[in-house]
Amino acid sequence: MRRWWLRLLRYAVPRWRGLSAVTVLMIAGVAFDALKPWPLKLIVDHVLPGKPLPSAVSWIETFPGGRTPAGLLIWFSSATGLVFLAHRVLQILQGYVQVGTVTRMEYELGADLFHHMQRLSLRYHAEREAGDLVRRIMTNCSCVR
């Protein structure tokens, strides 16, 4: 089997910074996604029934109003919103970096394909429709994505 993806690697290597940033942002997004249910879990399991907080999060009681159930409810509700917003910001940033990086890779591949098509003989171009060749270059470049 031919390893066609190795040939596409030459378009990815110059973009290693962008691809690394996408990977880091993706991992951070997964971490924030895993954090989403924890403030709500603490509200349901500890604040509403009036049970003491676990020792791992007891430091939140040092915040203003952290010793009352209403204060804890406000802090954990705010934490839920902040985790959601941080996750969304990471998703937006990841999408921005990913689109920029991948679009540059697609343009480089398209330029290489176009240069290759220009080097082909006139007989080759006479036997095929020009619109079909251009469409193939424009649509097939997305394989690098």
Tally of helical runs: 6
Mean pLDDT: 85
Any idea what the radius of gyration is?
26 Å
Low-confidence stretches: none
Q: Helix share of residues?
A: over 70%
- Helices and strands, in order, run as HHHHHH
The description of the largest β-sheet is: none
Structural class: mainly alpha
- Overall, the morphology is rod-shaped
First-to-last CA distance? 21 Å
Residue fraction in strands: under 5%
Number of strands: 0
Structure description:
With 145 residues, the chain is mainly α. It is built from six helices and no strands. It has helices at 4-12, 16-35, 37-47, 69-119, 122-127, 130-140. The two termini are 21 Å apart. The mean pLDDT is 85.
In brief:
By secondary structure, this protein is mainly α.
